[in-house]
Every structure is written in structure tokens, then in C-alpha cells.
Amino acid sequence: ALNNSTDGDDGGWEVQKTKRVEVKEARRLYVGNLPQQVTKDQIVDLIANSVNDEVDPQRVEIVRTKQNSRAFVGGVSSKLVETAISELNQTEMEGRTITVQWEQSKSTKPRNRRQQQQQQERRV
Asked: What is the C-alpha separation between 11 and 62, in angstroms, rounded?
């Protein structure tokens, strides 16, 4: 970073070193086949009880469909995610067998002709 400074004989500019922080793309915990009316509090309690640690409700995203819901939980360490997976995957919640795993990365494969055309146009 550069700061304008009148002190010194460097032409009025002072150079400051700044820390670079690498931000890795965070992976989230996926919890699938949840009951349609599941709440954030239920998901937070489920995960927190399995890993014996707090889960931030602000880091829980719920996606609802007509048949069921799924949730994505961020801000949990890799070690705690592995614990949650081993303890919760294929367990039951309100009569449904839930799936707990790492979130899968999004596919870049086009879903329809319009997306195919857009991808081809970008390549040209």
C-alpha cells in the first residue's frame, strides 16, 4: 500500500508492507433428504450435537423442494465435517434417511441448448 507522506526524501510517498491472506474456496457440508419443513435450528442442533461444537445458524442455507429439503452448512472445520459425516450419514430424521457428505462442486456442463451456445460463443 502506498501512503502520501511529506516526511522523508522519497518524493512524498511511503511504502507499507501488507499481509496477503490466501482465501481458499470453502467447502460446505451437505445434508440431503431432509423433511420438507426442517428448520435452521433443527439442522444446527443436529450438527452441533454430533461434533460437540457450535454451528453458526447464519452459515446454514436450506433449499426446499416439494418432496424434501436439503441444507448446506458452512464455517465448520474439515475435521468436524468428517466427524459429522461418519456419525450422521444414513441416519434417520423424522422417518427419512438423510445423506451427509461434502458438498459436490458445481458442474460446468451446459444444461440446455442455450447454455451450450453461450459456452461456444465464449470460446470463440
From this structure: 55
